[in-house]
Here is the input.
Amino acid sequence: QVQLVESGGGLVQGGGSLRISCTASGRTFSSYAMGWFRQVPGKEREFVATISRGGSRTYYADSVKGRFTISRDNAKNTVYLQMNSLKPEDTAVYYCAAKYTSNNYYTEVEREYDYWGQGTQVTVSS
Here is the structure.
């Protein structure tokens, strides 16, 4: 069992930056690929970014590529999402997710993830 807790959300002006974090319980964090997703009320949750368990591979949604960076610190059981050049359309609840994997796999497919956090609100003002 893995518990994920997001933090760092808040209100930021358009064009600004914010870093959100997700800390996992347990001692096997390095066995999990991690992903960030986001959801706006009334819409489906959408993929944002994913990172392989060792951190060597990353993949981004086109809407955030070049602005967001996913990273992880396995010694701290934490995955980060650095968000730069924020836009009002980035406003959403951001969720982290973990998928157990025995190799360097990562995925943007929501249903493949095993565990989810409770989410953190990010609001970007115009």
Remarks:
- The longest strand covers residues 92-100.
- The chain has no helices and eleven strands.
